[in-house]
Every structure is written in structure tokens, then in C-alpha cells.
Amino acid sequence: TVAKLSVMANYHLTVFLDLSCNHLENLAENIQSLVNLKILIVEGNNLHSLPKAVCFLTRLELLNLDFNDIKDVPQEMHQLLQLQKLACHPLDKGLHIIHNPLLKPVKEVLEGGLSALFNYLKAG
Predict the structure, then answer these.
(1) What is the pLDDT of residues 72-94, one digit of tens each?
(2) Residue 21 exposure: Cα atoms within 13 Å on the Cβ side
(3) What's the whole-number mean pLDDT along residues 61-72?
(4) For residue 62, what is the DSSP state?
(5) Where do the structural domains in the chain lie, given as residue ranges?
(6) Which residue of 23, 75, 98, 124 lies most exposed, with the fewest beta carbons within 10 A?
(7) Residue 122 has pLDDT above 60, yes or no
(8) DSSP string, 63-109
(9) Model pTM?
């Protein structure tokens, strides 16, 4: 299943989007048109990767990617400066990603926190 954002009036004003537990395998590239999005929850799906388009959602304060099949993240993810930390508690703002079979970045990078992850991604 592909998450496609349907054409709806004022969709660009959306600040909260919960697509959790929908058996999604990927996200549509046009998700980047949700320029005001602050919270994106896609936990509990079957995502294998994250489109670079998510990295253009620079207002994101909470990005929950937990419990998917994500093995690596886009290098551009370091642009998400509103994400303050790697989050563990479901209600915490930040990046929720540790419950994935990540190969890149390796767990040791994640243990250093969000700044270590962003530095790793910037270095390419």
C-alpha cells in the first residue's frame, strides 16, 4: 500500500498527521507539500525507507518512525532542525527511530543522540 495524499482543500495547513498502523510500505514524495506539518506519526507500518521529501518538512517537531523496517535514513535528515532529540517515550517530541533494523546509521551513532546522528549524516 502506498500512502498518497489526496487533494483536499487547505491540505498545506495540516500540522498533525497520524498514519500509524496502516500497513504502509512507503510514503508518497508529495508529502513535502505539507509545509506546516509539525507532527508526523508513521509508526507500526512496513516502511523500508524514508523518502528524501520528508527531510523538507523543516517544521517537524515530532517524527515517529518506530516499529517499521527502516534500514537507513536519508542524508538530508539533518535539515530537520526542529527535532530536538532522539525520543524514546511515545509522547516525547523529537525523532523516534530506534525501533527499526537500522544498518545506516549504526546503533553506536544513535547512542550519541540526535546531534551525533546529524553530524554522521552531514559527513556523508
Answers:
(1) 999 999 999 999 999 988 789 99
(2) 0
(3) 96
(4) E
(5) 12-123
(6) 124
(7) yes
(8) EE--SS---B--GGGGG-TT--SB--STT-SEEE-SSS---BS-HHH
(9) 0.88
CA distances 80 to 2, 25, 44, 60, 71, Å, are: 23, 22, 22, 7, 19
- Inter-residue contact 96 to 114 (CB < 8 Å): no
Cell 498533525 found at: 16
| Residue 55 one-letter amino acid | C
Percent of the chain with pLDDT over 70: 92
Residue type, 10: N
What are the DSSP calls for 11-44, one per residue? GGG--EEE-TTS---EE-GGGGG-TT--EEE-TT
Distance from C-alpha of 47 to C-alpha of 67, rounded to nearest angstrom: 9
Cα 47 versus chain centre, distance: 11
Q: Which residues contact 124 (CB under 8 A, 6 or more apart)?
A: 75
